[in-house]
Design a protein that fits this description.
Length: 391
């Protein structure tokens, strides 16, 4: 009897790294408080925003570059590398371009060069912390968050833009280390001082999605929608909430609304494609995923979903390539590794390769307990199959 090997899809949320909040409390370790409710997290914003504390934070949040932008960035990288010597600002431009096209290892090296030249440069330290968060190397990220903290504390009047960048990056780091209540308080501070800080609402809602607290995620997303003019990422969050509740038609409506506001929102394209795959509407799914990859060529979930689509439609070699591409972008991604394992297990009939990949899923630093449990089930199934064959 052939074992059942499920294929898994991952809901997509674009969490971007970049900014943070106010001069009060730059400490990395914050005194724990009681668990906060969604209403407590957003209630401060009812008083409105003090104009003096509003800044142009959007500049620091870059979306995934399009294919055209990637080509332009790669040409910029090539031109800069041709120079015999570069100024500090040119090296910073190089580091940012390398990061934007997904060359995180090269970007790390370039940022380290900047820090050797000037260890007190805030841009280099905070952006290197963000690189390490993208690579899921959280302890190293906190080394540079600590350095960024010291730089800000040494300044008599830190720039508000730098404070926003620091606090937001710190909040994402706290989420990565399961210090969720602390992260939520920081995101709440951001919202209280910048009511249209959509990424703070998004990250806050996402923290509740991760705990399957869908009512709270929905509350936060709706509050953010009330207070922002362009809120496609929050409509995407509401789509995920509806999908998790099994309300697939409503989920599709929200993804459609998000894409009407922003036709190139990669996460919503991937999520709508995932629903199409579940309904066996493969042409529609492929169209959305091609669009997602065009607009977000370094968004791993798009490649995972395309791999699942190709696996469902019998294009196994292409499916393998897409899972491998996702892993080249995010080596710790448990969804990509699990699906690649299932491909070797079920379609390529290579149990040894599958078993190794399943073990790697279990050992992954990616915080996806559900997938790790599935991998353990498949490991046990492969072991049982071996025992049966040896009898």
């Amino acid at each position: 009897m052939k074992r059942l090997v499920p294929i898994v899809l991952a809901s997509a949320v674009n969490l971007q790294l970049g900014c943070s909040s106010t001069p009060e409390n730059l400490d990395i370790v914050i005194t724990p408080e009681n668990s906060t409710t969604a209403d407590m997290l957003v209630r401060k914003t009812e008083e409105g925003v003090r104009p003096a504390r509003v800044i142009e934070w959007q500049h620091f949040f870059k979306t995934h570059p399009t294919s055209t932008e990637v080509l332009q960035l790669k040409q910029q990288i090539k031109n800069l590398n041709k120079k015999e010597t570069m100024t500090f600002d040119q090296i910073l431009t190089l580091a940012r371009a390398e990061r934007a096209v997904g060359e995180l290892e090269k970007s790390e090296v370039t940022y380290r060069t900047l820090i050797r030249k000037n260890s007190d440069n805030f841009d280099a330290n905070i952006e290197l912390a963000q690189v390490f968060l993208e690579k899921n190397q959280v302890s190293l990220a906190f080394d540079y968050l600590t350095a960024s903290n010291k730089i800000l504390k040494s300044q008599e009047t830190p720039a508000k833009t730098d404070l926003y960048r620091y606090k937001y990056t710190l909040a994402i780091g706290m989420q990565a280390t399961n210090r969720i209540d602390e992260a939520r308080r920081m995101l709440s501070d951001l919202i209280s001082n910048q009511r249209d800080f959509i990424l703070a609402y998004q990250a806050l809602a996402h923290s509740y999605l991760n705990e399957s607290k869908y009512d709270l995620a929905e509350f936060i997303a709706n509050r953010g929608i009330e207070r922002t003019e362009s809120h496609a990422p929050l409509l995407n969050v509401l789509g995920i909430v509806r999908e998790k509740r099994g309300e697939l038609a409503r989920a599709t409506e929200y993804y459609n609304k998000a894409l009407k506001q922003n036709p190139n929102l990669v996460a919503a394209l991937v999520n709508r494609a995932n629903l199409s795959i579940r309904k066996s509407e493969y042409d529609a799914a492929e169209s959305d995923l091609k669009n997602a990859i065009t607009n977000g060529p370094y968004f791993a979930n798009a490649y995972i979903s395309m791999g699942v689509l190709y696996q469902r439609t019998g294009r196994f070699t292409s499916a393998k390539s897409f899972f491998e591409k996702a892993l080249s972008i995010r080596p710790e991604n448990a969804y990509a590794r699990y699906n690649l394992a299932s491909l070797y297990d079920k379609e390529f009939e290579n149990p040894n390769k599958a078993l190794r990949l399943y073990y790697e899923v279990v050992q992954s630093s990616d915080k996806t307990d559900e997938i790790k449990e599935l991998a353990l089930i498949q490991i046990q199934g492969l072991r049982d199959s071996r025992i049966s064959l040896n009898k």
